[in-house]
Each structure stands twice: as C-alpha cells, then as structure tokens.
Design a protein that fits this description.
With 564 residues, the chain is α+β, with helices and mostly antiparallel strands. The chain contains nine helices and 32 strands. The strands form six sheets. The chain has a nine-stranded mixed beta sheet, covered by helices on one side.
Length: 564
C-alpha cells in the first residue's frame, strides 16, 4: 500500500469514527402508547418511553397532546414529568389521552428547558371506540372478540394504566407475571376491574403471593379429574361462588374483590374446548371502574357561595332610599333633614360598594375535592376535583395533582380555553367567568388507618392521620355500628346498637360524606366481612398569591378490618 493510499484510509477511518461519536452523542426517543398499541380516547393510557444516548443534562420528559379540530375547537394538553429511567433506559407514565386526530409529541428536556430530542407518535391507527379484552400469555383459541394480546413483560406497572381494558385474561406464561404487575392488577380489580386466571397444570408458573390473595380458593392443590385433566382444587372462600362444574369438580369460581371480580378457571387454557370457552365468556362481566365524577359535580353545585350577588346590595340601597323619602315627605321639611338625607344616601352608597365588592370575603374560585381511600392489602385512591369561577375575569389557576389528571371535556371547545399544563405536581388552567371544570385522578393509597376487631364488642383502631375523623362506622356482616370520632393515634371503641346496612348513615342524608358513602356501598362488598368507614369534611380558604379560593375537602376512608 502506497503512502498516499494509507493516508486516504486513515482519513476515512477518522471520518467514520467522528460520525460514530456524533451519532452516540445524539439522544433518540422511542415511545409505545396504550395496551398492545391500543387505547380508548378519554381514558388513562400507558405511555412507555425509551431513551438511547442519554445526555448528562437531561432532566425531564414533556408530552404534548393536541385535542379537537377546526369545527370542535382545539385544546393543548402538556404534561412534564421528571426523568426517571429504569436500568433498561425506559420510563412508564400514565397520561390522559383524549383524541386520535393529531399525533402525541414526546420531548426530552435539558436543565435549561431546551429540547434535546423529540419524537411523534401517530394515534389514529391505535384508537379503539370502547374498552377491549386483554389477554396475557398464550391461548389455543381467542378467548374474546376484539382481543389484544400482550406478553407478560408488556404489562404496565401502574394500576390506572389498565383503564382501557374491559377484562384481562391470563393464560400460559413461561416466566409468570412480575410481582409489581400483580400488585397493579390487584389494585385495578379492587377499583372495579375483571380478572380471569387460567390455572390447572400452569398454576405453579403463575404462583405468586398476590395471586393467592386474589384467588377464590384457599390452600390450592393440583388434582387429576376423571377425564385425566389436571385441575386446581382447594377450599372455596366464603365470599366466592362456584359458577360452573365439570366432572364433579368446580371448573369456574368467581370472587368479588373490592369493586371488581376475579374468575378462576381451575384448568389450564389449553384444556378448554370451544364449548367450554363459550360457557366461560357468558360468565365474564365487563370492568366497571368506580368514579366520583357525578358525586363531585353535584357537591360542587351545592357548595355554598359567600354572600349574595351584587344586585341584592342595589335593592337594599333602593329600599332604604324609598323608605327614608317616604318619611321625609310625610313630615314638615326642616333644614337638617337635607343634610341627614345626603348623609344617609352617602352611607348607603359607600356601604353597598363595599358589600358588592367584598374583596376579602367573597371568593373568586370554589373547589370541591373528593377522595375515596380504599385500604385493603392493596390500597387505592380515587379522586375528583371540581372548580367553579365566581370571578368576573378570566382566572389562571393551579390545582394540586400527584399525577396528570383526566379532564372532563365537552364536545365543543369554542366557548373557552381547555388547555392544561401539568408540571411538578400541579395542573395549570384558565377559568372563564362562571365556568365549571372537573378533573379525575387515581393513585396508590398508603396505609393510614388500621383496625382490628378483638372481640364481639371491641374494636381497636390506629390512625396515622394528622386530624380526627368526625364520622365513622364499623360494618360487620351487613350491620353498621356508629363509632365516636377517630382521633390520631390509637383508639379503643365499643360497639353499641346495630343498624341494618341499608339504613346506615354517615352524617345527614344529604351531607357530602353520606354521598360518598352511598357511592362506596354500591360497589364494595360491605355485606360481607368487617369494614371501617370513616371520613371528614374540611372547609378552608388557603392564603396565597393566586385567586381567592374556597376549598371543600371531602375524604372517605374504607378499611378492611381484621378479626382476632
């Protein structure tokens, strides 16, 4: 090789090395949206982002979701979350997605807010009009129509990510299901989801502590049926029902778990024929997730507004002037009466001005926050925030939210702005005069209350809450016992006269807590077992630099009680 050829080769190699370094220094983004690449607009949706070539100054991810069109109007939803990549370079978020017309934009941001990388995900091909069944693992036959098939490693780790699932079926999995995914599935079922588990000879591939807590069977063991098929057998729990029997062995067993249901097929998926599958489909109810949207909307409408409207002050001035004029006209005129009339008129005018514009007492914004804490072994929080603007001007409001909230949107956005900006636990929005807005949130509940029934008439309660809970009930097998207010720390209470569950009240019939209690009683199995139900209503006017805001906070805690 000549010297000239060697120099050319070195130059080419240097150019390639430089190109490789530039490529490595340029970060890239990839994102997967939905369950099995499918989602239902207007629901919480998982979005998994993968980052390659991560720069040292990357600090956050920003998602920009455009909603609407030229006829409906348009809104922009922006969610910024801290960067928290796993060892594999992925990050799972759960976002509200409302529309499939325009793509979802994902951006990697630096410490100064600069965009380091971006990508777009087309949503139109991923849209489903209604919730759909999801199957995990392998099956010999499709278990349902419109089925979305997932591998176990594709399951989301947050329970709100399953919002688009009508039901979730678990078949044969070689490596089982991750413990965090079991935890998320348990919380989803607790909130109203439907889980179908095939077991039989595949049971020990799935076996996990959380699964055993969910199953309708206790102490499960494998047996062989008369037809040679291996089936799972055990003691049926008191809150479970046998729905189908094959060869004198329970084949399909159902159990209520919170607001949802777990169905156990005692054989593996590959031992089920088409006839058995048709029988099974007929027994699987769709998921019905608990919602506080309707209750919060009603409570927001009923939240008292400070003081009468300005026209009441004008009527007061007019009535005072008419009465004073009538007195003066009916008497002989005196010079001091003119001075008195002017003084009274001035006093009424000034007073009415203060009365109609009480800047320190009349609120600009009224918030109603409702939260339902369901604390069993896997705790969840269902929340809803309603806000109403009583101001004459457009207000810019910050609402606290642990995760990006789901906004209840109308069909048309022409009347006002529905843009939402979420960042660092706060959602920023604009409220037009007289406008109402509702937001839904979901989270994981930490254990704040613990109760133990130590005898027929004694219950011991430990509260980690900072305040007392004014209203509380202990429900034992569909009988409700009123309890005194629950103070922080440990409390021992003794049961008095029982009331039938249908007649039990948590406060007055139309009280906010009673509304939440009725919603919880419709969905949760209060007719069996022991439950502690307690709550509080707190009215506050937080001080700050923003709009004058009056907040009504309504919280209800539902705790499964252990028995000695």
């Amino acid at each position: 090789m000549t010297r000239k050829e060697l120099a050319a080769l070195v130059a080419i190699l240097a150019w390639l090395a430089l190109g490789a370094q530039v490529a490595l220094a340029t970060p890239t983004l990839n994102a997967v949206v939905g369950l099995g690449d499918r989602f239902v607009p207007g629901r919480f949706t998982p979005v998994t982002v993968t980052v390659a070539g991560l720069p040292l100054d990357a600090v956050s991810l920003r998602f920009v979701h455009a909603v609407g069109n030229a006829w409906r109007g348009q809104a922009s939803m922006t969610y910024e979350v801290p960067l928290a990549l796993s060892d594999a370079g992925t990050q799972e978020e759960v976002l509200p997605l409302y529309d499939a017309s325009l793509p979802l934009r994902v951006e990697l941001l630096g410490s100064g807010g600069e965009i380091l990388a971006r990508t777009q995900i087309e949503l139109r091909q991923r849209k489903e009009d209604a919730a759909f069944p999801v199957a995990v693992g392998s099956f010999p036959l499709p278990v349902a129509e419109r089925l979305i098939l997932l591998a176990p490693e594709e399951l989301p780790h947050q329970w709100s990510a399953y919002d688009s699932a009508e039901s979730l079926w678990i078949g044969r999995t070689r490596g089982g299901v991750d413990a965090d995914c079991w935890d998320a599935l348990a919380r989803w079922v607790l909130s109203g989801g439907t889980l179908v588990v095939f077991s039989g000879s595949d049971f020990y591939l799935l076996d996990a502590p959380v699964l055993r807590d969910l199953l309708p069977l206790e102490t499960p063991v494998l047996i062989e049926r008369a037809d040679g098929i291996r089936a799972l057998e055990g003691r049926v729990r008191e809150d479970a029902r046998v729905l189908l029997v094959h060869d004198d062995v329970p084949w399909l067993i159902s159990r209520r778990f919170g607001a949802g249901v777990v169905l156990l097929v005692t054989t593996d998926a590959f031992s089920v024929d088409g006839v058995g599958l048709a029988e099974l489909r007929a027994k699987v109810p769709p998921a019905r997730i608990l919602s506080l949207l309707g209750t919060t909307s009603a409570l927001l409408n009923e939240q008292p507004v400070d003081g009468p409207a300005p026209w009441a002050a004008l009527l007061l001035v007019a009535a005072g002037l008419i009465a004073l004029s009538a007195i003066i006209v009916g008497r002989e005129w005196r010079p001091w009466m003119g001075t008195a009339l002017l003084g009274v008129f001035g006093l009424l005018a000034v007073s009415s001005g203060f009365y109609a514009n009480r800047a320190r007492t009349v609120s600009d914004v009224y918030l109603t926050d409702t939260e339902l804490h369901v604390e069993v072994q896997f705790g969840i929080i269902l929340s809803c925030t309603g806000c109403f603007s009583a101001s004459r001007d457009t207000l810019h409001l910050q609402v606290s939210a642990g995760h990006p909230p789901l906004q209840a949107l109308p069909r048309s956005f022409q009347e006002t702005s529905y843009d939402l900006r979420y960042r660092l636990g706060e959602a920023g929005l604009s409220l037009s005069p007289g406008e109402r807005r509702l937001f839904v949130g979901r989270d994981v509940a930490l254990s704040s209350l613990h109760a133990r029934l130590t005898g027929d008439e004694e219950v011991r309660i430990t509260s980690r809450l900072p305040r007392a809970l004014a209203e509380s009930l202990l429900i034992v097998d569909a009988e409700a016992f009123p309890l005194p207010p629950l103070q922080p720390g440990e409390t021992t209470a003794y049961l008095g006269t029982a009331t039938a569950l249908g007649n039990a009240r948590l406060g007055d019939r139309e009280a906010p807590l009673e509304r939440l209690f009725v919603e919880a009683a419709r969905a949760l199995p209060f007719d069996r077992g022991v439950w502690l139900v307690a709550g509080e209503v707190v009215d506050a006017t937080p001080r700050g630099d923003g709009p004058r805001t009056k907040v009504r906070d309504v919280r209800l805690y539902v705790v499964e009680v252990t028995r000695d």
